[in-house]
Amino acid sequence: MLNRKELEPEKSPGAAFGQRLRSMRDERGWTQDELAERMGYSGTHISAVETGRRSPTPHFAQSVDKAFGTGDQFEREGRAVRNTGLLEGFPEYVPHEKRAAEIRLFELGIIPGLLQTPEYASAIATGAVKRGAITEQQAEERLTLLADRQAALQRTPAPMMYVVLDESCFRRVVGGPRVMAEQVASLLEFAALPSTVLQVAPYDMGERRSFDLPVTLLTLADRSHLAYSESAQRGHLVRETTFVLSTLTAYHQLQAEALSQTASVGMIEQLRKGTS
Known about the structure:
By secondary structure, this protein is an alpha/beta fold. The protein has helices at 13-28, 32-39, 43-50, 58-68, 73-82, 90-98, 118-130, 136-152, 168-171, 177-191, 242-257, 261-272; strands at 102-107, 160-166, 196-201, 215-219, 225-230, 235-239.
């Protein structure tokens, strides 16, 4: 079949679920639309789950079992997909990040994943394991995906990255002084790249800071925009809507109020002296 994406079931539980879904659909000779009609979903939704761009919800997995007559087989596999170190909804976001022409980030308290050194990222993951939030295997899954996401930034042409970090990102020491010093040094190297803009939102911005939660905005090659945010339960990907455009406006206001890149680098250099 033309343009049929090759699946990699060994890549993750979600990819394995998608491969099994496609195989059983193929065995019955059903198209995605035909399966979707039996399940009460759209063909686009079926495609997204098969290719791992969307995680199967409990209702989706139950609907698959009902359509195929497989008891609770897919429901059980769906639980394995959701029992992962990745927040539900995040895998849907990652493919868009990998092809974005522009990436805009605002973060509080912690350096965003795309800018983390391996040691800093490992310290964050280890902390989650010690708290019982994730298993060691799930921590390894997070770190593997993070390395893959960071490697994707090395593409040509490189995406333009705009990053505003709250001052708390530098005040909070992660992994100890040595790890933090190396992380700060890495950020200064990042700021020197031609495809990046790094700014600090200092504490004294006060109420002029546009956001109280982390923000991720993507501009795709066709100039459409996506926004990604997270709650305690899941990640949320929002396509170009009034909400996304208003968030983009607020981000521009944040950039205007934050320190310039030159002033930001100067501030980071001063803070660096306290981490070495």
